[in-house]
Amino acid sequence: MRTIASIWLLLTFTLPGIGLAADPVERPQILITDIKQTVVQMSVKPGVSREDAIQALMSRALEINLKFVGRQQVSKELEARGLKTPYLDIFQFCNPEDARKMILHDPIFAAYMPCRIAMVEDKDGKLWLMMLNLDMLINSELLPPEMTEIAIRVNQALLDVMVAGATGEF
Predict the structure, then answer these.
(1) N or C: which end of the chain has fewer CB atoms below 10 A?
(2) For the segment 31-51, what is each residue's pLDDT rounded down to a tens digit?
(3) CA–CA distance, 8 with 3 (Å, rounded to integer)
């Protein structure tokens, strides 16, 4: 609650025309989104090893022609620096044709690329797969129908990859 109050005070006293005497209709709306709604989280099935989950998600991505473009083995890098850390591995995928169409529509969508799936170990040692919740974009009015179709297709492909990794089935 302190954060919301701080934002409101900042807006009230620093933005021109928004001071306390301003008409309430002119004040900006403040919307706070629960961070958990911005991410799709899928637990890795008990008994599926990290290696099997990785092999399954990579195989599924290859099978559906989702190009693997990068990997950040964050926990491995941190451990090499002498820092004990939970497991964190980030896999990056892209469909170059879809990426091209999206940035031709609006270059701002480059910030969503490449599509990432993270494998994260929680405090209890349980593995999770996580990705950006593209439903927020799909259900918005930001995209015309042809771009929405691309976003739906990419979202489904990433979910397919996550399911393969979570179940260890490929």
Answers:
(1) N
(2) 666 777 788 999 999 999 999
(3) 9
